[in-house]
Amino acid sequence: MAKTQTLEREARRLGRYLVGDDLPQELVERYQEANLALFPERPSAADGAILEFVRRHPWSLAPLESALGLIRPDALLRRKLVVMMAILETEPRFAGNFEALAPGRTGAVLRLMGLGLSSAAKVTAGILLYPFAKLLGARGPESPDGPGA
Predict the structure, then answer these.
(1) Would you say 133 and 50 are in contact if contact means Cβ atoms under 8 Å apart?
(2) Which of 62, 63, 103, 108 could form a disulfide with 126 if both were Cys (CB 3.0 to 4.6 A apart)?
């Protein structure tokens, strides 16, 4: 039961991160089922620590996810995000969030520059945060639900 509740909170947090909106219960349940099927094993110590840190500190999701793309591309957090993206892409309400925009040449260049600067800032913050997340996340939750629940 506790794993199901943890996965429900995780699904809602990842969904909000990816599409900026709350998810319907059906998508949360799909995420839970997918995780139980795809990730039945216990996470490694590093992956468990990162997931616990993100659970307690939701603000850390963006920088850690960005940094993990460079330093640990196969990290469990990133694999869970891919699962959530796949689920969200199947829902017509959210599918548009994953389609490329066709702004004109100037708009594309400006958008690319903005995305590049934003990504660089997130990666830098995430790389600085990563060692602390591993250390503090490994200590486990402060309460049964953890403050980030």
Answers:
(1) yes
(2) 63
Angle among Cα 35, 56, 54 to the nearest 5 degrees reads 50
Average pLDDT per consecutive 10 residues, the chain (149 residues; last block may be shorter): 85 94 94 95 94 93 91 95 93 75 70 77 83 78 43
- What is the Cβ-side half-sphere exposure of residue 57, based on CA atoms within 13 angstroms? 17
Rounded CA gap, 14 and 22, in Å?
Answer: 10
pLDDT reported for residue 119: 79
Rounded to whole angstroms, the Cα distance separating 76 from 73 reads 9
- pTM comes to 0.74
If residue 84 lies in a helix (H) or strand (E), which one and from where to where?
helix 76-89
Distant-in-sequence, close-in-space partners of 15: CB < 8 Å, separation ≥ 6: 21, 22, 23, 27, 28, 31, 84, 88
